[in-house]
Amino acid sequence: MTLALSIGSGIADIPAAAWDALHDGGNPFVTHAFLALLEISDSVGPGTGWQAAPLLVHDAGGTLAAAAPAYLKGHSQGEYVFDHSWADAWHRAGGEYYPKLQLAVPFTPVPGPRLLGHDGAALDLLIRGAEAVVAGNNLSSAHATFVAPDQLHRFTDAGWLARRDVQFHFTNPGYRDFDDFLSTLTSARRKQLRKERARAQAGLTIENRTGAALTTADWDAMWHFYQDTGARKWGRPYLTRAAFAAMADTMADDIIISLAYDGGTPIAGAMHFVGRDTLYGRYWGAGRDVPFLHFELCYYQAIDIAIARGLRTVEAGAQGGHKLARGYAPVATWSGHHIADAGFRRAVADFLERETAAEAAEAEWLGQHLPYRHP
After folding, report:
1. Helices in the chain by DSSP H: which ranges?
2. Which of 10, 145, 247, 362 is the most exposed place for a label (fewest CB within 10 A)?
3. How many Å apart are CA 30 and CA 47, to the nearest integer?
4. 162 and 80 in contact (C-beta within 8 Å)?
5. Cis omega before residue 15 (within 30°)?
């Protein structure tokens, strides 16, 4: 089969049906709707450090056969796989680390496919294409972050360096309800979670809304909470208000917002995205500090929702060892890295070897501190 590689100017310019035919629809963040709304809302694009440059493979008939969401990056913000030390080292050596090529979903530390398509040769061409973009434009590197585990081998087989990190995910084996989940925990942890939920909910009303039940006021409240958290954690929020409006227009049925009310006033909220078998916790914020309310909206309500909907997994975002005590177990996440300069590549490979050893030791420790009762 004859295949041709090109670089697009944006995902919003690609027909949605052609893009979405390349994946199984199970992960909402690789859908045309989500990736396009980032561009349309100016959350990515000029002035953001994220310039859309999707890699596209067409067959001889002009049909889109494979694609990768890709961006030229002018910084390392919004990636959650931290390479600032690599950039500093390369700059000290006299090189220019930025721009770099990033195969990723912006601002979204959610594992998923980074190579979209159903033909292995076309997927491998995307990787070679990323390498060609680096070589042809004298870039320092290309990075594929939060790669689905079943795709990692395509990057490592091509010689990319693999990097391991950890997240904490909740697994639902078929619990009847939250109390059924609690029954699997140690007595001390079971009591602690009940106390946390009681304190978080005291005097408040919590509602989970989705689809047409979400009002403009709900979206405004969630934007306010997100903006406050973003301003404190990142300096400025990544997503614009227009992105939230686009979510309301195109993805509301795939989104659940958990809101905590004091009387009729919302004081905190958390946004979850619904996949085929996974609930993805994404954004959170609060207008005032209430003990354990973050845990309630982001973790415990997410467990309630997953059980009620029969979802297998809750992914509650990047990092956060505190999730371990709340029933979220450590899970490895992966990224792939193509470093153009041979000497720099050796230095990064040495760093990753040491980092991986430390990660393995941490994973062993975490595995010994799960809150579940032993069989």
Report:
1. 16-20, 32-40, 84-92, 120-136, 152-157, 178-182, 187-201, 216-233, 241-250, 293-295, 301-309, 342-367
2. 362
3. 23
4. no
5. no
Token pair recorded at residue 34:
């989500």
Amino acid at 73: K
| Per-residue model confidence as pLDDT tens digits over 42-93 | 999 999 999 999 999 999 999 999 999 999 999 999 999 999 999 999 999 9
Q: Quick check: 233 pLDDT over 70?
A: no
Instruction: Give 111-146 pLDDT, tens digit per residue.
Output: 999 999 999 999 999 999 999 999 999 999 999 999
CA distance 161 to 112: 18
Distances (CA, A) of 365 to 185, 189, 333: 18, 18, 17
The rounded distance, in Å, linking the Cα atoms of 237 and 52 is 19
Q: Are 270 and 281 in contact (CB under 8 A)?
A: yes
Burial code of 50-65, b = ≥16 C-beta within 10 A, e = fewer? bbbbbbbbbeeeeebb
- 219 CB-contact burial (10 Å; exposed 0-12 / middle 13-18 / buried 19+): buried
> Is 230 a residue whose pLDDT tops 80?
no
Residue 375: pLDDT above 70?
Answer: no
21-34 pLDDT, tens digit each? 999 999 999 999 99
- Residue-wise pLDDT for 302-348, tens only, equals 999 999 999 999 999 887 889 999 999 999 999 999 999 999 999 99
Task: Calculate the dihedral angle through the C-alpha atoms of 166, 78, 222, 313, rounding to the nearest 10 degrees.
Answer: -30
Give CA–CA dist 374/368, Å, rounded.
11
- pTM (predicted TM-score): 0.95
Taking the alpha carbons at both ends of the chain, their separation in whole angstroms is: 53
DSSP letters, 123-158, are: HHHHHHHHHHHHHHTT-SEEEE-SB-GGGHHHHHHT
